[in-house]
Design brief:
By secondary structure, the chain is an all-alpha fold. Helices cover 66% and strands 0% of the residues.
């Protein structure tokens, strides 16, 4: 089976991550003298990564954030928010602990901005 046929079949089977990574995985695999199993493993990892990214994109879309906001746009000095703590939350460490976050503050203090940045 030719390269373009293989890629078409991967896409038909909805293995878009594998299709996108096919050329790089095969070329690198041949260059590094890797086994077929190792190359297939790389393609499977690419598919898993693509599906994870697609799931995150879907979840963000379903959350219906008004505007996607990041920490880059947040003015920490003006807000008085503990930047180190927010950056720690932004890394997602609290997810492994199955913890919750509660943001408390007055109107226009940046709670929604920070919540969107952390969630995204």
């Amino acid at each position: 089976m030719k390269r373009h046929d293989l890629i078409s079949e991967l896409k038909a089977l909805k293995l878009h991550g594998m299709a996108a990574a096919f050329d790089e995985a095969v070329v690198e695999g041949i260059r590094r003298n890797r086994t077929i199993q190792e190359i297939l493993g790389d393609l499977l990892q690419a598919e898993a990564s693509e599906r994870s990214a697609k799931s995150i994109r879907y979840q963000i879309r379903v959350a219906k954030f008004q505007t996607l906001k990041g920490l880059e746009e947040f003015d920490f000095p003006q807000s008085g928010v503990d930047e180190a703590r927010i950056r720690s939350l932004h890394s997602g460490d609290f997810l492994e602990e199955s913890g919750n976050i509660v943001l408390v503050g007055g109107t226009s203090t940046g709670k929604t901005h920070l919540a969107i940045a952390i969630a995204a």
